[in-house]
Amino acid sequence: MRSLDGVHWKNEEGLPYDASSTYYTDGTKNEWYKFERPKVLQDEIGRATHLSLALLDTAKGSDKGNDLHRSKNMILPLVVERCVTILDEHPITAKTKTIAVRIEAEADFHPQKEIDLASLRFGSDSFVNKGRGCRAIRSHLDGENLIVHFEGQNGLNRFDFDFKLLGQTKEGDLVIGYALLPGKSPTAASLFALPVQVKELDAVKTLEGVIENIGLEDSEPAQAVVMEHSQAGWKTLKRFPLPAIKPYENNTLSMILDHPDADDCEYEIRIAGQQTCEGFWRKVDDTDPSVEFTGNWGSCADPGPQYYMNNERITETVGDSVQFAFFGSKARAYGTLADAFAFESITHPIQD
């Protein structure tokens, strides 16, 4: 998972660790029940080098004093990212065919001697992680560094702010690195809308919102869009012009709400044209094709306002089920049981 501003995150598919991660170099393997409190050790330029985890061999509530259960703190060495830079100055698009990349040498890494060029893939992580992406077509020396020219389909999508390098050394060790795309910067201005507040005074409801610049540079003038979610779905209420905002400063906006059922609506502020990264959660409602119902389910003609996208599916038959196909490690289901709102979190390791 990566982010330029600490708010809009891009996360790759897969598990960072599981029970199969806890083995020693001599082949000894331990399978722990619970992993928690992850922390990372970083080097002088911020790369993660080691992962610390607290381990327990049973459910936490079952661990009693003076019993036979064990807990431990484990330190896992990580494959350190390599320093990779895209040399092209012009913007890269999905149609860009060739890309020049510099792979920097380090005290413990000599790319000219160690890298298996035929193994390298470069491009969007959505391509590279599946064996696709650009391939190395030629290389040349740059002092102790290595310049590699890649050609092919890079897979660029609207969530990408960097490209991934993936391959191996001639000894079979993993080589990985990320390079910012031309024009992308971790210090650029980033406008962020805080959760709105709805206040009432003398029977008049007023929406107030705050837009902050959490970047390190002045923002350009922009537009804030106030959205309302009711039983009719999402609706644009009003657009507000935003002036340039300095780093860590903010702009407050407000408007009177005229919806008679404003208490039953959801409100949020979006920044017009802002390209955000995929979050941890992909929300779908019961009409999405990835959700399959088995049994005597029926659609409610008048769903309550708490239901996402104003759709509600109900059943009273024991044994009815629902199946949701997804890529990831965890799913959350929201609904009601006997008129009480319910929430269930399910962790499900993906099987190949």
Compile the SSE list and pairings.
Elements: E1 2-3, E2 9-10, E3 34-42, E4 48-56, E5 71-77, E6 82-86, E7 98-103, H1 111-114, E8 121-123, H2 125-128, E9 134-142, E10 145-151, E11 162-168, E12 174-180, E13 191-193, E14 197-201, E15 204-213, E16 222-230, E17 233-242, E18 250-257, E19 266-271, E20 291-294, E21 298-299, E22 313-314, E23 321-324, E24 330-337, E25 340-347
Parallel strand pairs: 6-12
Antiparallel strand pairs: 1-2, 3-4, 4-5, 6-7, 7-10, 8-9, 8-11, 9-10, 11-12, 13-15, 14-15, 15-18, 16-17, 16-19, 20-23, 21-22, 24-25
Task: State the main characteristics.
352 residues, mainly beta, 4-stranded antiparallel beta sheet, Immunoglobulin-like, 7-stranded mixed barrel, globular
Provide the structure class.
mainly beta
What is the count of helical runs? 2
- N-to-C SSE string, H for helix and E for strand: EEEEEEEHEHEEEEEEEEEEEEEEEEE
Second rung of CATH, namely the architecture of the largest domain: Sandwich
Q: How is the main sheet built?
A: 7 strands, mixed, barrel
How many structural domains?
4
CA radius of gyration is 25 Å
Quick one: overall form? globular
In total, how many beta strands? 25
Determine the CATH topology of the largest domain: Immunoglobulin-like
- The averaged pLDDT comes out at 86
CATH class of the largest domain: Mainly Beta
Strands side by side in the biggest sheet:
6-7-10-9-8-11-12
As a percent range, the share of helical residues equals under 10%
Gap between N and C termini: 21 Å
Per DSSP, what share of the residues sits in E-state strands of 2 or more residues?
35-45%
